[in-house]
Every structure is written in C-alpha cells, then in structure tokens.
Amino acid sequence: MTEYGTGPPDQQDDTPGDTETSEVNYTDHEDPLIDASENSSSIFAQKKLLEIGHVPDVDRIVGRDDEIKQVAQRIKNLSHGTSPTSFIIYGKTGTGKTLVARHVATRVKQAGPRHDTRVATAYVDCSQDSTPTQAARSIVREINDPAETGFNIPITGMGMSQYLLRLWQTLDELYDSLLVILDEVDRLRGTGPEENDDDLLMQLSRAREAQKTEARIGIIGISNKISYRDRLNQRVKSSFGTNDFVFSPYDQDQLTRILEARRDAFRPDVLSDGVLPKTAALSSREHGDARRAVRILRHAGEVAEQDNIEKVTGDHVDQARQRAEVDRVAELVSSLPPHSRYILHALVALTEQNRPDEFKTALVHDVYEKVCDREAATSLSLSRFREILDELAFLELTEKKHTGGGKNQGAFNVHKLLYDADVIKSYLLNRTSIETRQGLID
Ligand SMILES: Nc1ncnc2c1ncn2[C@@H]1O[C@H](COP(=O)(O)OP(=O)(O)O)[C@@H](O)[C@H]1O
Ligand SMILES: [Mg+2]
User: Fold this and answer.
1) In the chain, what's the furthest Cα-to-Cα distance?
2) Are 124 and 183 spatial neighbours (Cβ–Cβ below 8 Å)?
3) Is 61 in the pocket of ligand 1 (CB under 6 A)?
4) Which fold, 336-431?
5) CATH of span 251-333
C-alpha cells in the first residue's frame, strides 16, 4: 500500500488504478509529509531541546555548578598552554556526566585564543568506537584539518600506531593543547595481544613525557562503573592521579527544575499543570536520572501529537514512561557484549518456563552453557560468569538477591529479570542467531 497523501494539484489523477505507474514528483512542489517542519507542530516549539545529545546553554544546566567548577579547575590549564590534570568522572546514567564534560570542553576551547593558545577538543563515545584503534582514529579525524596539514586520515587500512603518528603530527602542526573526552571509557577493549584495553590511555597520558608531541593533553574519562578504576593498569592509574569524582543522582526537585528549564521546547500553554513534576517523580523512582526525565517528557509530547491533542497531560506521561522503558531496554541490550546476551537469554528461557521467576546461579549457568553450545561459543569460567551477572544487575536489567536457604541449606544467590521476558527477548533475537528456546531446558 502506498500512502503519499494527495499529490501536487497538477499531478492528481482521479482515475483509480493509474497510481502504480504515475510517479510522484515533488521536485517543484511541497511534499506535505516531508516539508512540514517542526513549526507546524501544535505541541513542540523547539524539539531539539529534548534531544539527549543536545548540549544545552549554561542557563539551562541545573544543580551542577560545583561539578562544572571542579572539572574546569582541573583542565583550564589547557587554555593557558600549561599542563592539565586528567581524571575520571563516575556516576549512574543520566547524572549529567557527558553534559558537564562537553560543556566545560567548549568553554576551554573558547578561552584558548584569549591566551594565545590553540586548543583542540575531541569527544569519543567508546560504546561506538570501542577499540583503542577506533578511538584513536576518531580523535585524529576530529581534529585534523586536511587543508592545513596536507593529509587525510583514512577510515580503514591504518593501525593504532599510524593513527597515533598522525595525531602527534596534527597536534604539532595545528595546536598547543588537546582535551580528549573518552565517554563510556570502560567500554574500550583491545582486540588481542597486539592491542590492550589501556593502550590509548597509556599513549595519550604519556605522549609529552615520551616526546611524541609538544602539545599538552588532558583526558576526561567517563564511566558508569565505579569498578573501572581497579581494572586500569598501574601506570595509567598513576597518570590519572587521585582526582576522580562521582556525580550523584538528582533528587526529584532538581529533576523538576531541569525540566522547567526546557519548558520552552513546547509551545506556550501546551503543558498541563503537573506534567513536569509527574515526569520528575517517575524518573527519580529508580535513581534520579535526567536522561530518563527528558526522554519521558519528549515522548509525552509525541504521544499527544500523534493523538492530535493540543495539551500534554498526565496520561501522556504514563504512556510515555512505558515507551521510555522499552527504549532503555533496547539501548542496553543491543549494546551488550555476546556473553552478557547469552546469559540474558538463559534467564529469558528460564523465565518463560518457570514460576517463580527467580533462579539460582548454578541453574542459570547450566542453561547459559547450552546457549553457548548453540552459538558455537566457548562458555566462560564460573567466576567470569558471576561477574557478568553482577554487571547485568548493575545495569538494572536483572536483580540479584542473596537468600538464606532453609534448614541444612547454605545461603545462595538468585537472579531474575527486571523486565518482561518478551521485551528482552525481542532485542536479543535481533542480535543472536538463536531462534527458539526449545531444547534449552530439559
Ligand atoms: N544538570 C542538568 N541540567 C540540565 N540538563 C541535564 C542536567 N544533567 C543532565 N541533563 C540532561 O539529561 C540528559 C542526560 O544527561 P547526560 O549528561 O547524558 O548524563 P550521563 O552522561 O551522566 O548519562 C541530557 O539530555 C542532559 O542534557
Ligand atoms: Mg553519558
């Protein structure tokens, strides 16, 4: 079925059956579906304010003055051409880590010329560029200006050391200092003995000392996992000093103010009373997550828009919350590494077959091994398996409970899914080749 709406006037043809051959031509005419801009929305005035990647102006940033100050304190030297302090920001999702880092980076870059310093900034999302080589490539591609340096950075065909060589060259030709933000830095994984997880951090933090470049380099690592620091090798750890800090979740009042500061994403009078506080309340239930709050608010507007209703109400917020939940699961599950997915798959299979919905570690492990067989993958050791179960619980996809068994039974852990098995399964199936659960459970 084709649904183009009505074509431009001179192309309209009332004869049914002719539609298949007549091509719709919108070169000279408005296409009502595509041309309609946001201005025609009866709900949103500036929807971009509610996009997660959008870095809002400073007056829309709420309750992070101290954090901004501290981050600025550590890296402001970059705009004076002296050495900055590298560090890691920890905190749960939606606590403003990315926002604060990007915001301060922009200010450091803008301050550079006032001190005769050429500052480069690079932002790498390590959940996308997840090997040290890809991350290095992304940095040099972001700061290189081929018109100035005379070279392009190819996307393929170069290894880590070549990208780094280009990076040092670019720095020495064009800049005095570089600020690198490595977001979700715990996702960086080397591909083998030739490439270790920490290679990039090591190279960047030692570059000047090792006389690879004259430029000063500051690194801000960002991670949701407080355990990340323990994983770093000693030399990298020492160049990060002891300056790490943790962003805490927002309280309900802060979330309300964050949303208030973006009220003008909507047309005047579109938001019913109580929509913002309700969104904030729903978002602070697990932990004060501003990402969730902004996302729910945007979805609520979209739901109202789809229903052609001119006001956003509490009902829309409820519907939007369900959607936000699904989005979150989709995002989390699709970015999991293979064995985490296999373990989730084991839990899905068990949940579908059993009541109650909690399972002992050993049972989950049995099913997990069967999933591995299917996937022709070698199953991980029990200790690594347990670690991944903990990570899944940390991500709030599953819950782990320590239970004191009955008489003559030792204490043990049980695990359960925190979302509908169906929902999780639908995202797993996009990624694994497993098509049915049959045969996984005897
Ligand atoms: N203090 C704040 N003031 C205004 N908006 C915020 C604040 N903290 C977070 N946000 C918004 O919430 C969303 C998630 O923030 P983000 O920085 O991506 O969180 P994190 O990186 O900690 O997961 C973004 O849209 C961001 O603009
Ligand atoms: Mg972030």
Assistant:
1) 85
2) yes
3) yes
4) Arc Repressor Mutant, subunit A (1.10.10)
5) 1.10.8.60
